[in-house]
Amino acid sequence: MKQKEKIAIVTDSTCDLEREFIEKNDVHVLPLRIIYQGKEYRDKIDIEPQEIYERMPGEIPKTSMPGFGEITEVFTKLKEQGFNRILSMHISGGLSGTVNAVQMAARQISEMHIEVLDSKALSLGLGFLVNKAVRLRDAGCVFDEIVEKVKKTRDEIKVFFVVKTLEYLRKGGRIGLIEGTLGDLLNIKPIVSINEEGKYFTYAKVRGRKKSMEELVEIAKEYIREKAVNLAVMHSGAEADAREVREKLLNTNCADIREFFWGQIGPSMVVHSGPGLVGIGIQPVD
């Protein structure tokens, strides 16, 4: 007799979904770590973005992935609760070792099907996938169908963002394929995206903060024109700029926006972007 599926959804704290959504939809979150002078803080549990802004630029912390033991413990508890299928979705392997650690932990759990998915994204790019998986699970889809559809969605998502300075990406080792070491001196603002390998690259370059916000809006309009989409606008301590981007996109008549996500990126993301990031995420909807 075929075993009845009981499906759990796991992600990490970089997904930037609201706590209310996480709790309401029974999503299990592995927190990354923020490290100041040897002291560890759990992302979004022990520390919030504002504390990091206040300590910058004098103190720039490091980040680390969830501990192997912690990941194993989460999977083991889910197994004890009767779950026999887990879809575990995480920040791009090109930006963090988290997905590799989760894959290693998953191999330690027997008699359970654990699908570990590299989102090739971060923030609400990852959040879109979690949201998709929740909706498919709640619609009664079987596990293999959920995995297949989430993978298809992953390949369609676009993420673009602008930072005030490249300093924090550089110091955190996340500079990737972003061009222009002299960009800060020349006030050149790259529009950053994520390639098929899940690494940052320069999508476009403009001069000045105002122009970069305008270009971000134009890029978004190009991708959402005459399509049904879910749309996200995120920021790190740049609410005024982000609100302006949000209003321009929500007031456009060129797209059918089904779901809109808005908010501030979490502490582990702030460490590598610094204050001043404004980003957009786009997910085409069937």
UniProtKB/TrEMBL annotation:
InterPro entries: DegV, DegV_C, DegV_domain_contain. The lineage of its organism: Bacteria, Bacillati, Bacillota, Clostridia, Eubacteriales. Keywords: Lipid-binding. It holds the Pfam family DegV. One of its GO terms (molecular function) is lipid binding. It comes from Thermincola ferriacetica. PROSITE patterns: DEGV. May bind long-chain fatty acids, such as palmitate, and may play a role in lipid transport or fatty acid metabolism. This is DegV family protein.
